[in-house]
Amino acid sequence: MRAARVLLAGLALLAAVAFVPPSSAPDRLGRWQRSQHSVIAKLGAFQTTHGAVAPDARSFAQHLRTQLHEQPALAALQPVLCSVAEACRDISRLVRHSAVGGESAERSVAVNVQGELQSEMDVEANRLLKAALCRSGHVAIVASEEDAVPSRCGGGRREFAAVIDPLDGSANVAAGLPTGTIFGVYRHPLGPPPPLAAAASTGSAPPTRFDAAPSGVNGGGLVDGGADEATVLQRGSELVAAGYCLYSAATQLVVTVRGHGAHIFSLDDAAGDFFVSGPPLRLPADGPLFCFNDAYSPRWEPVVAAFAHDLKHQALGASLQPAATRASPRKVSARYVGALVADVHNVLRHGGIFGYPATRQTDGSLSRGKLRLVYEANPLAMVVRAAGGAASDGRGAILDKAVREVHERTPLFIGSASLVAAVEEYVRHFAAS
User: Fold this and answer.
1) CA-derived radius of gyration, the chain
2) Which of 68, 192, 215, 324 has the fewest beta carbons closer than 10 A?
3) Contact between 240 and 252 (Cβ < 8 Å)
4) Is pLDDT at 337 greater than 60 in this prediction?
5) Rounded to whole angstroms, how far apart are CA atoms 68 and 26?
6) Which of residues 385 and 205 earns the better pLDDT score?
């Protein structure tokens, strides 16, 4: 409440500054200008006294200390997750500055392992996040969507492995639309990586040291390549922490740690830190949002098309045999931003379902899906499940899927538990018919 009163008072002062007197009253202009100087001075004093953050607001680090105090075995997660928050803050600034300049957001500089064009933004976000994770001192391996193979962090015994999508939806930046960062953290079950000399003597070319960072950034000893992929091929159910950053009207960090719920934190630019924003997130069991790219509907499997048709017509079950129609209690609203983080965040806050199904290819074969199981689907599935939702590939829980290779793709249906369960019900019925 105090924060709300502070905001309202600040807005009232800004409204006073914005008022312009009529030009037909030049004799009153001087008095008006003098009064505005007074208002601006009061506004500055107001901001100095109250600040942008309520005095009792809990920072991200304070929240983690309290949460991890109950789980001593995961205490080393705090510097890891704080390093993610630090990188998200820097990427947020990068996104905003690039939106102003425009060029780096659109200029392609390479093609990544996915066969997708990389912008300067993609490359820089990848560098920032990998370097921050290695600097934490507790991450042994970083696997990035942007890299062909995982990278290693050198120096000492490190307990965790991280998987990242540094800048999801980067094509949105030039248009001023939301983008995000996705991350997940596993235990590193295989022990510390071998020394660099041993890794370089395997007969292949020695890994290249990650030297794109300015002086001092490379304190974690990040090395491109040379990491054992098996460490990051664990099922999503083995994640110990996951989350995402959303870069939009506000920069928000959503995090879950195993055994706890999902919490949201907002970046205060003046303080340069994230602060708790409200109670733990709870995803409604049902909801109005339908977040599918309908442009691909002609290429969907018949079962997905039937589910989407019935849901949009408030008649789930109508296409099943025997029909088991159950009317939706609310109208469906179609929403699709084109950035996975933004769409899932919207569903998480309001309820509904996001879907990116497999599609038919020109040769008639069915794709394995577009989204990456390791970097995107698994971390977001952990967050949504912690908030009371669910995630599936249509045939089973995303978090239970065996991971065959680091860049594996998957269909994804994620959101309110009842709607994700309905997708699986449709798949079972169509398979049996």
Assistant:
1) 24
2) 215
3) no
4) yes
5) 64
6) 385
pTM of the model: 0.81
- What are the Cα distances from residue 243, in Å, to 220, 318, 352? 22, 36, 19
- Which candidate, 276, 254, 295, places its Cα nearest to that of 385? 254
CA atoms of 283 and 414, how far apart (whole Å): 11
Whether 74 contacts 150, CB under 8 Å: no
Cβ contact 371:356 at 8 Å: yes
CB 304 within 8 A of CB 412: no
Please, which residues have CB within 8 angstroms of residue 83's CB and are 6 or more apart in sequence? 132, 133, 135, 136, 139
Please name the amino acid found at residue 329.
Answer: P
Q: What's the pLDDT tens digit per position in 207-235?
A: 333 333 333 334 456 666 556 688 899 99
- Which amino acid is present at 317? G
Element (H, E) at 31: helix 26-50
Distances (CA, A) of 44 to 10, 31, 289, 408: 10, 20, 41, 53
> What tens digit of pLDDT does each residue of 34-68 get?
555 554 444 444 444 444 566 678 999 999 999 99
| Helix 340-350 with 378-386: angle, nearest 10 deg | 10
Strand ranges (E), 25-125: 108-111, 117-119
Q: Across-strand partners of 392?
A: 397, 413
The structure tokens listed for 340 are 């996975």
Q: pLDDT for 250-263, tens place per residue?
A: 999 999 999 899 99
Q: HSE (CB half, 13 Å, CA atoms) of 77?
A: 28
Q: Which residue in 254, 234, 259 sits closest to 243, CA to CA?
A: 254
Structural tokens at position 389: 């939702």
CA angle (394, 417, 238) in 5-degree steps: 70
The residue whose two tokens read 């990040």 is 222
Sequence-separated (6 or more) residues with CB below 8 Å from residue 322: none
1: amino acid identity, one letter = M
Lowest-confidence pick of 192-196, 203-207, 342-346:
203-207
